Amino acid sequence: MGTDDISAELTRNTKNAPPELLTRVFFFICAALSVVTTASIVVLLVSEAAKFFSVTAPLVGFAGETVSMVDFLTGTTWQVGSGEYGVLALVSATILITVGAGVISIPLGVATAIYLSEYASTRARSILKPALEVLAGIPTVVYGFFALIYITPAIQTLLPDTGTFNLAAASTVVGIMIIPMVASISEDAMSAVPDELKQAGYGMGATKFDVSTGIVVPAALSGIFSSFILALSRAIGETMAVTVAAGSQANFLPPWDPTSYLEGALPMTAAMIQLLLSDITGGGLAYRSLFAIGLTLFVLTLTMNIISDVITQRYREEY
Amino acid sequence: MATEDRTIDGFGQVSRTVGTVFRYLLLAATLIGIVALVILLLFVANDAIQPLTADPGWHLTFFATLVVPTLAVGGYLASRNQSAAAVGVGTIGLAVVTTMFAGGLSLIFVDIVDSITWAAAVLTLAVPTAAVVAIARVSNRSPLELLAVAVILYYVSLFGVPGPLRSVVGTGQLLPGVGSAVASIPVLPVDWMLLFATFTLPVAVVVRYYARQLVDDRTATAIVAVGLVAVAIAATAAPTAGITPVPATVLASVVLLPTMTYVTTTALSRPHDRVGLALPGAVFGGSLLGAVAVRTLGYAGPQAWVDWQFLTSAHSRNAIDAGLYPAIGGSILLMLTVAVLSFPLGVGAAIYLEEYAPDNKLTRLIDVNISNLAGVPSVVYGLLGLGVFVRYFGQPSGTVLVGGATLALLILPIVIISSREAIRSVPNELRQASYGMGATRWQTVKNVILPRSFSGVLTGTILALGRAIGETAPLIMIGAPDVLFSLPADLSSKVSAMPLQVFAWSSLYATPEFYQRAVPAGVVVLVSVLLSMNSVAIVLRNKFE
Predict the structure, then answer these.
(1) What is the secondary structure of B126-144 as a DSSP string?
(2) Interface of A with B in 214-273 (CB under 8 A)
(3) What's the complex ipTM?
(4) pLDDT recorded at residue B319
(5) Where do the ABC transmembrane type-1 domain residues begin and end (chain B) (predicted)?
(6) What are the residue ranges spanned by the domains of chain B?
(7) How would residue A110 be classed by pLDDT, with cut points 50, 70 and 90?
(8) What local confidence, expressed as pLDDT, does residue A2 receive?
(9) CB-based contacts of A214: which residues, under 8 Å, 6+ apart?
(10) Count of CB pairs separated by less than 8 Å, A with B
(11) CATH assignment of A79-315, given 1.10.3720.10, 3.50.50.60, 3.30.420.40, 2.60.40.1670?
């Protein structure tokens, strides 16, 4: 990709000399490994999840305890002990956390991106950008501990009804965690807006505020939206912070009700960790349910990544 | 925006208020996340170190010996000579980061790999490598012949003659491999001398390579030679201070050698910035002076939970006795495994995609695939490790190898993406010049692309490794134990890790004692390791961009 025709011409004679061939094959295997990884993820998740549902189990020749796919997708009770696998109980918690994280990270992230790309001096940028990177580099289990020990008591002093495990604290830390993602992708999109457009704006007598909100943001809108989707997909897959802070009791909470945030619930990722920690037998129903949740999670995040790709590709303003 | 209406009576008059308010709102929004994190980190540091439990006299002493001189020197440098201040900060940073690094390495050399094993391994690889390089230099052999010679030499070095082919040849072992030959020498030198020869000397070669870029050849050699003597003295003198020679050798080679070299080369090559060395002098001298002063005056320090006992003991049911040692060792081993697995694979993939790949469907598939893999949640990678490595390949669950492989797969897309950026930033003229001189593709990659992009690749890899150390979920998924009382002995023993231990303390041992002591202390250790890795990466990036 980084090469042009001339270099291909120049190296054609030596193309198949042993060292060339060896190194090229090695590099190709490295690159192909990523495809193998994806393929094994898909095959593994699909084949194990297929053994979980009664509809698909006969197709893979599996005879054992299974769960109806309709019950899985529409049930609102998650009780592994009594064999109730209603994933909506988990999905509702994930949705609540993702929305809460989005409410925090989207405005802050976009404002950060505008500040960094339009207002900040070079010196300020050289300090703020690494600081934001650190925000994303703190281990998520540490964020979970922060939520549990420092943020939850703070929320409890304001709203005494809040439980020890609650979604509000969990969404707050997940939101803080994904600010850098929204900010850096949006900022890339804003920096890609050509200078001519901005200068045309200034030439027309617009202020910096007008240029930022009237030219830069609209021109970079596709990049900004794709940053939202990527960051939210990250929030969905976020595991340790929510495992520590959100609670361990599966609990269907209506996502449209703001008071849900004061209660604890079990998001999908936390449910997987909980299943793993509870001595499940390999190959049993609980073990296979792990892969069913994993598949749901994978499909969800993959779809969001693809949507974000499509948005950047299709709606990008070409200059 | 609303200029049209105003043009009639006041052309060009625009209120500044909106713009100013907007600007400060943006700044505030930018700072909110950072400030929130700083506050949380201060809280946790306060819980872990408890500065308020110290005597007021302790604080006063250190204020007088450490804080005041440091602020005075730092303020003077910052206002007069910024590049000298940078040298001072750089020296302190180098000392701190190398000390951390040396601590980890000492742990490995003391408890996991003994000096003889290490020396044997280094010699086993070094002897045939040197021989192959020498043959390639002296005679003009074809690559295939060289490869054959290399295979034979490595085989002999690893297994001896005839090695595993014994049953085919039908004779007994005629010659031992280099490793077993070293192990069978009846009189071995003292273990720190083995380390000196096989660990300190390679470090010295690397340090000299960097010193060469600042001063001339002879000076560099002299500086490094003095450093080597210093390491030897440190190792011999260590027992008098109650430290065993092996960790002393490691500490001296990793901390003393590079820091001394940095200080002397800077002093020689940048005379104007020499004054900057007063800053580390103030900091380290002040700490030492303060430590001596509080001891003689009898002031008690803070009752920090992060102390030597915490760093060197294993988990305990009792929060006061609980420590992080096996988890630290596990994290180090995991990091090494991940680095060994993901660095060559990630850089290789990046080189293929940037330098070799034709613009076809397969390339685009790989490209899209990598960016999607970067978005796959870490639990799903954990499932992959569990389903493929543990269940399908039948590896025992929770081992260093399985954990390392899973984490390596997790960070591979990040390594690939950042390496590609670094490789892409190599100017095209350099490639064209190389090809124009008749270089082949591999020669261009080896002599032009890799050296030019190395620091960028390294930065990306360090950041990715930081991500790997902080991950907990995949380790839980592959069945790493929550609590481990001893260090993993090799790649196939169970492993714990720092974040996993912190998680275990904050969820399974959820008592107020653990919340107030063990967890904050663990968080402080984990976050300091990650912050130092991040700052190394950022310094590298700023330096070479």
Answers:
(1) HHHHHHHHHHHHHS---HH
(2) 214, 230, 233-234, 236-240, 243-244, 269, 272-273
(3) 0.91
(4) 76
(5) 328-537
(6) 1-53, 82-299, 312-544
(7) very high
(8) 45
(9) A201, A206, B1
(10) 288
(11) 1.10.3720.10
